[in-house]
Design goal:
CATH class of the domain at 3-78 and 135-149 and 237-336: Alpha Beta
Strand content: 5-15%
Largest sheet: 8 strands, mixed
Shape: elongated
CATH architecture of the domain at 3-78 and 135-149 and 237-336: 3-Layer(aba) Sandwich
CATH topology of the domain at 3-78 and 135-149 and 237-336: Rossmann fold
Length: about 350
């Protein structure tokens, strides 16, 4: 697969970019285009300020909702996801803790619910679960999100989780056996392509543990496997593509160039960029003529900043992109560019 035209073969597409450049409209148009070609497609919005429902002119929310034939939408609420996540963890830990510890456990978990990063951690786990599970039900998953920060944190979660686990175990002398088992969660042993005793079905890595410690180890191990499996999917160019949307303006150009560089350092398959809202050739008037002169410079700057990355240009529409009719028009533009 080469460049943006390889999107036709991708199973997972992340659409990202600076706020206000039209990435939700682009994600919606890509979904419409895929559905028109007979694919079953799910668009997932992970932005707290959801606009996917506004784009399709229907309420979506945190449940899979039909948008048109072959196309569904889902708006993941990070705060609600964090609440569900903390509640589930609290109930699970109550089963492992002594009854007299339950009240303190609830207090600590309530604090964790409001801690910085709690919503994002829950969101990343939801993204990981959707990426792995929904691929069997849909031909294409489209994530409408700014992928750089999310993706890099998703890639580093096994290591971050290992560091946290090591710190926790350091305060518990009785966890020596668990510590030995979890040593493969440390950064130097956590690469997805490095086999561990956990990958050998003939071995029981939890041998010798009491029931409570074994359950903790199994939970941590399952989370490690979840993020490793997700990392393998999103770094596989035969499965996943990252597409950036930007407009011919200075700040989006700078942010996109930095984002592409960051993802490439992690071997993330960046497929290309869509330059949105380019003035059409028949736009007239003195004001637009001056604007076009500046835009030409920015388009040249995009070619330089994103050298080696496949890009296409989509014209500015006279009307806002909202509703299926305008999405069909945008999808037609993308199809004309070979997508």
């Amino acid at each position: 697969m080469h460049g943006l035209r390889g999107l036709r073969e991708s199973r997972v597409v992340f659409v990202g970019g600076k706020g206000g450049v039209g990435k939700t409209s682009t994600a919606g148009a890509l979904g419409v285009l895929a559905a028109e070609r007979g694919k079953r497609c799910l668009i997932v919005s992970t932005d707290p300020a959801h606009s996917l429902g506004d784009l399709f002119e229907r309420a979506i929310g945190d449940q899979v909702t039909g948008l048109t034939a072959g196309l569904w939408g889902l708006e993941v609420d990070p705060d609600a996801q964090a609440r569900r996540h903390v509640d589930a963890v609290t109930e699970h830990m109550k089963q492992l803790a002594a009854p007299e510890m339950h009240r303190e456990l609830e207090r600590q978990m309530e604090m964790a619910r409001h801690s910085p990063g709690a919503a994002e951690a829950a969101l990343l786990e939801r993204i990981a679960n959707i990426t792995l599970s929904a691929r069997d039900e849909y031909d294409l998953l489209i994530f409408d999100t700014a992928p750089t920060g999310h993706t890099l944190r998703l890639l580093s979660l096994p290591e971050a989780m290992a560091a946290w686990t090591d710190g926790l175990l350091a305060h518990n002398k009785r966890s020596e056996t668990l510590g030995k088992v979890l040593k493969h969660l440390t950064p130097e042993h956590s690469r997805a392509d490095v086999p561990t005793p956990f990958d050998d079905p003939q071995e029981d890595p939890f041998q010798g543990m009491d029931r409570r410690t074994r359950r903790i180890a199994e939970t941590l191990l399952e989370r490690r496997r979840l993020f490793h499996r997700t990392r393998r999917v999103i770094t596989d160019p035969e499965i996943t593509s990252f597409v950036f949307v930007l407009t011919p303006e200075r700040l989006p150009i700078l942010e996109t160039a930095r984002a592409v560089e960051a993802l490439r350092r992690f071997s993330i398959p960046v497929r290309g960029a869509i330059v949105n809202r380019v003035l059409p050739d028949d736009a007239d008037g003195q004001f637009l003529a001056r604007r076009r002169e500046r835009e030409v410079r920015y388009l040249d700057e995009i070619d330089t900043a994103l050298h080696g990355l496949d890009t296409i240009r989509v014209p500015m529409f006279a009307e806002d992109i909202q509703g299926l009719q305008s999405l069909d028009a945008l999808a037609a533009e993308l199809a004309r560019e070979g997508l």
